[in-house]
Amino acid sequence: MAMHANPYSGELVRAIRRAARRHGCEITLADTGDSVSEEAAVIRALRADRVDGVLLVPAAGDEAVINGLVRMGVPTVLVDRMAGRNDVDQVGSENIQAVCALVRHLAGLRHRKIGFISGEEDMATHEERALGYRLGLGRSGIRWTSQLVACGQSTPGGAAAATAKLLDSWPSPTALVVASEAMMIGVQYEAHRLGIRIGRDLAIVGYGDMEWAGQVTPAVTTMAQPIEEIGRKAVELLLARITDPERRPESVRLAPRFIHRQSCGC
């Protein structure tokens, strides 16, 4: 399995290992550092070890490595970060309706200036979350405006800069939707640096449930990814692909769970 550095990588790995043990399989873990070049090197090494298949959390901007695995007929499942293609098995969280629900929750609290901290623009996952944001605004009767959207580059530092930009602009948002766990760290940091009281001066909701999300004050309202189910399904899809290489590829999206806490101000 080729992994990248992720706020819940350890939890996902443990879920995959549990599922693999139930099927009598062994897992070889490799960290790609979220780098396409390192990912390619890891895949070459795994192929040299004659692994039966690959579970891959693809790096941002990765197409060449995936194309190579598909072309060589290597049983492969993309995990967590799904790609906009139909020639490889994939499993991850549902994004569009989940983020739409977060926006509508804020709109139900009478917020009309709802900002969005988006992730890396070349990733299908974040494109879907951005679409969910726009869908949620539309279903709430709120007009989309680019002034309320800033890219956090999927990093804490990028999200801190994006938060500062939005809060210093006009119209300044009264609520923020944060597209990933890593970026929530930067948003929290910047809000505290500016003396903004989360849940009172600024409502915040996010996607992904890091361990600390329920322990900070106020605790973070979020969509929690079904990590155990993702790990289980990833192993099942890979074993099915190994057993029947000609089967039609599947893209499985599992619904996250809404966790209502205090950061949204209610």
From TrEMBL:
* Keyword annotations from UniProtKB, A to Z: DNA-binding, Repressor, Transcription, Transcription regulation
Which GO molecular function entries does the Swiss-Prot or TrEMBL record give? DNA-binding transcription factor activity; transcription cis-regulatory region binding
SUPFAM superfamilies in UniProt: Periplasmic binding protein-like I (SSF53822)
State the name under which the record lists this protein. Answer: LacI family transcriptional regulator
What CDD domains has UniProt attached to this entry? PBP1_LacI_sugar_binding-like (cd06267)
Q: Which lineage do the record's taxonomy fields give for this organism?
A: Bacteria, Bacillati, Actinomycetota, Actinomycetes, Pseudonocardiales
The record's InterPro entries line, in alphabetical order, gives: LacI/GalR-like_sensor, Peripla_BP_I
Could you tell me the superkingdom of the organism this chain comes from?
A: Bacteria
Q: Which organism is it from?
A: Amycolatopsis thailandensis
Q: Which residues form the Transcriptional regulator LacI/GalR-like sensor domain?
A: 103-264
Entry-linked Pfam families: Peripla_BP_3
- Listed PANTHER family: HTH-TYPE TRANSCRIPTIONAL REPRESSOR PURR-RELATED, LACI-RELATED TRANSCRIPTIONAL REPRESSOR
- UniProt cross-references to Gene3D superfamilies, sorted A to Z: 3.40.50.2300
